[in-house]
Amino acid sequence: MRVLAVLLFVLFTGCTVVVQPTTRSYAPPPPPPPVQQVYYEPAPAPVVSVYAEPAIGQPEPVMVRWAPPPMLVMEPPPQPYPDSVWIGGYWSWHGEWVWVYGRWVDPPRPRYRWVQPYYENRSGMVVFVDGHWAPPHVEFVPPPPGISITISEARIGVSIGVAPKGPAGIFVPPPPGSRHGIIIPAPLGTSPAVVTGAPPVINTGMYIDRRMNNVGNTTINNTTVVNNITNVTIVAPANATANGRAFSHSVSAQAHLAAAQAPVVRVDAPKPATNAVIPAFMPGRSQVNLPPPQSVKPVLPPEYQQRLNDRRREQDQQKLQDQLHREQDAQRKLQEQQRHDQEQQQKIQEQQRREQEAQRKLQEQKHRDQEQQQKIQDQQRREQDTQRKLQEQQQKIQDQQRKLQDQQRLDQDQQKKLLEQQRLDQEQKRKLLEQQRKQQEQQRLDKIRIDQEQKRKLQEQLRKQKEQQGTGQPVKDKEQDLKKKEQEQKQKEQDARKKEEEHKKAEPETRDGR
Questions:
Q1: Cystine design at 205: which of 16, 240, 350, 495 (Cβ 3.0–4.6 Å)?
Q2: Cα–Cα dist 433/441, whole Å
Q3: In what order do the strands lie in the sheet with 169-172?
Q4: Rg, the chain, Cα only
């Protein structure tokens, strides 16, 4: 009942209920056990082998973006004469890493000595100084940190190799057959050929021990230069070598003796395709033409070959098991997905049925709403008719009010006209009064003038009588009477002036009152 009440409330309020399907969380299977790392011989990469003419004096260093390849095997022939020096047998940079084929040569000048090539891992790049002849009493100076070194880019068409993998500092290339990019830390002046007889490495960890037999050391720029080295020790942990065994072996530090070691993996250095000798690489100088590359093939010892075959079989079996696990897992996932799809389909059908029922109830509600709307519209129409009648009645009342206002305006106009007529009548009366006043004033002035004229004539008669009769009392009485009359006349004139002034003051008050 509670669910039904909620559903009816939702339907009547015009809302739509959306049921979110419940999702079942899928737990992925545990990952397969890690496959033990298997050694594979490096893919045979073509090698450019050349004869090189070493520089006399320390050449300028260059910066290379990737590490030199693993060492190649080259057994030196017997020394032809006592003063000859074994040079070459290492990787040099000429727009790509090329193999400098080893040979016995005489020093260019007396007491000149051979300096091994210099490799350093600096900021993930290789600082390289080619092998060269050094004058007597001149020691090799490693490029100091912070110096600006030219980055030498690869030749056009040369594939970029692997960046150096290992600790920063001086190193030599890894033993023959090793994984590309791995570097072997070594003391300064170590011949790269010392790793010829070491096992190939697949991880970092191999290094050349500094504990060695030597005659004398020289320190230059905080770097110890070891002279007259007789033996060095190569050390590697088990996880670094391809055979999974720890390695520690002392070998001769002399290049021709170290190169004569029996290799674990034989990758013979090809003889140069041409007898032309190329000069040492110099930054900024135009690149020399190199001979075509030659293919090389690593030869594994039976132990490595058997171990490799066993590892390959194990790996193939592991791959088959992994494939079977993946297929089973995929089948289980498919079944789980199908079951989930069926449950989802059932929920969708139930949802559709609920939606149809809700739609039907919604249509019924809409029908009731339409009827209610129709009633409301009829009520509104009746109200509109009533409103229209009220408006017509209000219009009539407004017309009557307008007529009444018009009548009042006419009455006001008529009253204004009457007031205007009264004002005109008062103005006419005022003018008549003014005219009467002027007439009275004129009469008064005429009377005064006549009295003055009579007085003057009387005075003239009195004067004549006086002259005829002499001085007497009657004449004085007449003069007094005459003065009295004059005073009375002046009093009348003053009274007339006061009345006139009062009349003038009364006129503005009368106008303001109108």
A1: 240
A2: 12
A3: 62-64, 125-129, 118-122, 169-172, 184-185
A4: 69
β-partners of residue 105 are: 85
Q: Which two tokens stand for residue 186?
A: 């070594």
Give first-to-last CA distance, the chain, whole Å: 92
Q: Which two tokens stand for residue 338?
A: 């199908």
Per-residue pLDDT tens over the stretch 445-472: 888 888 888 888 888 888 888 777 765 5
The string of DSSP codes covering 460-509 is HHHHHHHHHH-S-HHHHHHHHHHHHHHHHHHHHHHHHHHHHHHHHHHHHH
Is 200:73 a contact under the CB 8 Å cutoff? no
What's the half-sphere exposure (Cβ side, CA atoms, 13 Å) at 265? Answer: 28
Q: CA separation (Å) from 402 to 16, 389, 413?
A: 59, 19, 16
Structure tokens at 497: 């002036």
Length of the chain: 514
Report yes or no: 88 and 105 within 8 Å, Cβ to Cβ. Answer: no
- Measured CA to CA, the distance from residue 67 to residue 124 in angstroms comes to 9
pTM, entire model: 0.55
Token pair 């600006």 is found at 148
